[in-house]
Amino acid sequence: MTTRIEDRFARLRDEGRPALVSFIMGGDPDHETSLGIMKALPEAGADIIELGMPFSDPMADGPAIQKAGLRALKGGASLQKTIDIVKAFRETDTETPVILMGYFNPIYIYGVERFIPAALEAGVDGLIVVDLPPEMDGELCLPALAAGLNFIRLATPTTDDKRLPAVLKNTSGFVYYVSITGITGAAAPDANKVAAAVGRIKNHTDLPVCVGFGVRTAEQAAEIGKGANGVVVGSAIVSAIETSLENGAASGTTVEAAAGVVRELAGGVRGLKA
Amino acid sequence: MNQPLTPNSFRAGPDEEGRFGIFGGRFVAETLMPLILDLQDHWNAAKADPEFKRELDGLNATYTGRPSPLYFAERLTEKLGGAKVYFKRDELNHTGSHKINNCLGQILLARKMSKTRIIAETGAGQHGVATATVCARFGLPCVVYMGATDVERQAPNVFRMKLLGAEVIPVTAGHGTLKDAMNEALRDWVTNVDSTYYLIGTAAGPHPYPELVRELQSVIGKEAKEQMQAAEGRLPDMLVAAVGGGSNAIGLFHPFLDDREVSIVGVEAGGKGLDGEEHCASLTAGSPGVLHGNRTYLLQNSDGQIKEGHSISAGLDYPGIGPEHSWLKESGRVEYVPIMDTEALEAFQLLTRTEGIIPALEPAHALAEVVKRAPKMGKDQIILMNLCGRGDKDVHTAAKHLGVEM
């Protein structure tokens, strides 16, 4: 198993603060700019990076991330190019954990047996595949774990105590708690309910629990971060990228637009330091 | 070596994981997984419940008008000069297509599950109309997702749904067609998990939907089998049906799958030809992939991105296909062939003039294949085609393609 995720959470434990997990879409708005944004994220305060694998039919995503995926595909993105972004990123950053996030079909078409070594070689640490519940573990989860890639599972408000053990069984790296029933970038979660849910999950696992879906501001990040090991932010960052575009293409301010949001959110989680 | 073994029965699937061979499955977000398991429990209970069957049979008889007639198309048979052509007339159902068979069964299930809100996706609007109809019948609020492009193309059906009290939400995400409407319906479902039942319109999606929809549509094939015995004292030599998602076809085919002497043909939308991008022949020209909860044949590019389909018939305009059809193709039990827009349009006119029946453009595709095959068969042979929808909804489209101003 790659150890970057584990190492990062160990360091954050020492620092006494939650992680800021930042999502961007691979290839949004174009390959070079996307790599530029990714390189700027750690310095802006991203502790872990989720890199989206663009897909034409992202059924669990809200408008912001849907549009990011379509921009990337229009800009020529593919799963291979997303892997290439990670490879290029690793030339200058060997510590920040990178997780590929998306849907199964592009991986299935790339070929699972070809994808796993390609991702590992590029420096990927983990996978989040939205449409692979534990019932489908044979497809990708088990071979990925066997090869040393973390498989990060989503737990949701509908995952009850009876189901949690099945969901957590083959999960590694951390658990991603989806704070609302809904799509990415939707309604803000209730911090108290989230803290209770995280507590419930922690009764079943020693893995860190990060919380995402609907977190947009530094205040929310701070609030949610009090009760979790990490906070995931995606739509707010890709929305800032969208706003920075000129005629649909990257402008001189695009990289800074994404980094600026991350800096502000990082202030939220770092303010928690005891 | 790689030839799959012929199974003892073609009617045994799906397995407990919802698979038909490698196809099917449950590729959904975790939020939906508990709901799908719950649906499966309720469906298993309903299948074994005589009261559920009694209620559904009653509605089928008095609300839909089942059994639908089996009709011998005498003049068409004469004109084609070969096999006898019979139609299973599901176009005579209430709401004008086979879609109501599925909707009635699923709304009974939704009521058993104490759901208070129904959502559906629709392409041409036939499933949307059927869903809005059963929601009106049972007093449940109904939200129909429909691609913005289709809302424009199918204005009369949009109005029908609204008359029936449904809220029609035009989907502008993606490219605004049926697959985008399905994405949006899934997004609604994932947001409103407690109250909402997702009434899927075709034999696709995550398990148990493909099996559930097939069982509800199999009333077509079961009736046809008995009716054919009564009319001819034997089974037909060939079944023909159009496949978009594939619910009318699987409904006709399934009861006959183990009658090996019956050859079975599914007809896909060949659009403007398989050389280009403008078709919906996922089985003939696509490849296996994962979309909308199941593994099945899809139209996709080399990166696994789903393509937009095209067909003159909005009801066939979907880049996937029910997973059981994918399996029936690979097992060799059913032959799948494409029919072009122009051939369907010709068949549409032919049936109208020879039998006085205006078919929907979907079964017009099936008919175009019958037109090709019947003359090559003997006069003692029998073709049974599913005439699954009527063409009222398509007269504007047909007029446009025939160069007539309305």
Automatic annotation (TrEMBL), chain B:
EC id: 4.2.1.20
Regions annotated as coiled coil: none
Residues with the N6-(pyridoxal phosphate)lysine modification: 99
GO molecular function: tryptophan synthase activity
Pathway terms, separated by semicolons: Amino-acid biosynthesis; L-tryptophan biosynthesis; L-tryptophan from chorismate: step 5/5
Catalytic activity line of the entry: (1S,2R)-1-C-(indol-3-yl)glycerol 3-phosphate + L-serine = D-glyceraldehyde 3-phosphate + L-tryptophan + H2O
Required cofactor(s): pyridoxal 5'-phosphate
One term under GO cellular component: cytoplasm
Annotated ranges, domain Tryptophan synthase beta chain-like PALP: 63-389
Pfam family, one: PALP
Entry keyword set: Amino-acid biosynthesis, Aromatic amino acid biosynthesis, Lyase, Pyridoxal phosphate, Tryptophan biosynthesis
Family according to the record: Belongs to the TrpB family.
Subunit and interaction comment: Tetramer of two alpha and two beta chains.
Name the record gives this protein: Tryptophan synthase beta chain
